[in-house]
Amino acid sequence: MSGLNTGEQKQAAMARDRAALKSLFESASNNNVPGCIKAIQPYVNLETSTFEALAQFKDGRERTVLHFAAQSWAKDVVAWIKELVDGEKVNKEEKTRFINGKDEKVKLLLDANPASVNKPAPNGLPPLVTAAAGGLDGIASVLISSGADCGVILGGNVTIAHIAGDNGMVGTLRAMGGTETGRKAMGMDNEEGESAAELAAGQGYGECVKVILEATGEGEGWERRYEELKEISDKRVRAKPAVVEKEEEGEKGEEEVVWEDEVAAVEEWRRKVEGKGEVTEADKEEAGGEKGRGNGEFGRGNYKDAVGHYGKAITADPTERTYYSNRCACHLKLKDYPSALADAAVVREMSPEWNKGIHRLASARMGMRRYQAAAEAAWEGLKVEPGNQDLKDLMQKAVKKGREENKKMGRE
Question: Which of 62, 104, 168, 282 can pair with 205 through a Cys bridge, CB separation 3.0 to 4.6 Å?
């Protein structure tokens, strides 16, 4: 920056440079364009443009002024730098250090050094996480294109793809789809069992769903899958719980919380049984055959096809609990928790003390985020089989998740 000869002059110049650097970066962080201009002006001359002077300023971690502006979402400073680049004769190589032509909104690149895009911001988070959380699709997509790690996993097993899908960030998802790490992240579920595609579908972001499914190899017929995911997401909305009183031998007992969708599933099953009438031997044989075919598809991982076969078995014989239980297992594999819950509720009605059915019910309730109800179901199973480790683990997980949710909601 300063080409001086004597040691004293050199030290003085270095001190001025440090002061200018500090002033520039503080002004950028505070969205203060006049402050940035004042700090950089002494370094601008006939041979060095404002843009070129800005490009020379880096801190000890190789961060440019754009790091600080972008991390603080200093839009005025970003716009000023963009105007400088667009208005000056800057060669293509230099320009791409700040600009990405595919981004119509922000068009900025945080640094010329790809490795630095993963350096934490002052808030301790990588720039990509901060950009995604802020819904800044342009910045996030440019960061990924510049080498930012898009495979980062946050609390609750949430990925950048989950955040982008929930916020409708198509550009970010497209950039992720161009990397192996991004594609892997796009196929992951969070701790609630939700995929990035489901979150996007729940918000009505069809284009995001398409991008995600194409990246994960499920692009064929994506429109149909989009509608399925929307339905699953809609069903996830918690049904209204009702408080009823148990009655034992004609006397009022303790209160119990029931869920309307579970009650509705049982009522629908009863109507199906009544409508079917007597189950003949031929019906049972047909149902058994469909169950066998369903088991075969389940074993091959074709859970959707298995659902169809178990459904046909139920149509032939709606009185057999294993058909509902097996179909429930398929729904759990497909993360279709509302449908899994409906089948599990029917199994419980048919066989209240069958622990396989109880485990299915607890798992489905977990998927619906009904943690207290899931823990209660697991506890009921443990009273029948105290040594069942799977139910113990499930109950402990439900209790833990319930406490975490209560804290978030301010109930603890």
Answer: 168
Q: Are 316 and 292 in contact (CB under 8 A)?
A: no
Q: Can you tell me the distance from the alpha carbon of 261 to that of 361, in angstroms, rounded to the nearest whole number?
A: 13
Helices (H), ranges, 31-155: 33-40, 50-56, 65-71, 75-87, 92-95, 127-133, 137-145
Mean pLDDT of the chain: 79
Residues 6+ apart with CB under 8 A from 94: 51, 52, 55
Exposure string of 122-141, with b = 16+ CB inside 10 Å and e = fewer, is: eeebbbbbbbbeeebbbbbb
- Model's pTM, two decimal places? 0.50
Give the start-to-end residue ranges of the domains of the chain: 259-408
**Residues near 365 by beta carbon (within 8 Å), at least 6 away in sequence:** 341, 344, 371, 373, 374, 377, 398
What average pLDDT does this structure show over 157-168?
A: 88
pLDDT tens by residue, 257-306: 668 889 889 999 999 999 999 999 999 999 999 999 999 999 999 999 99
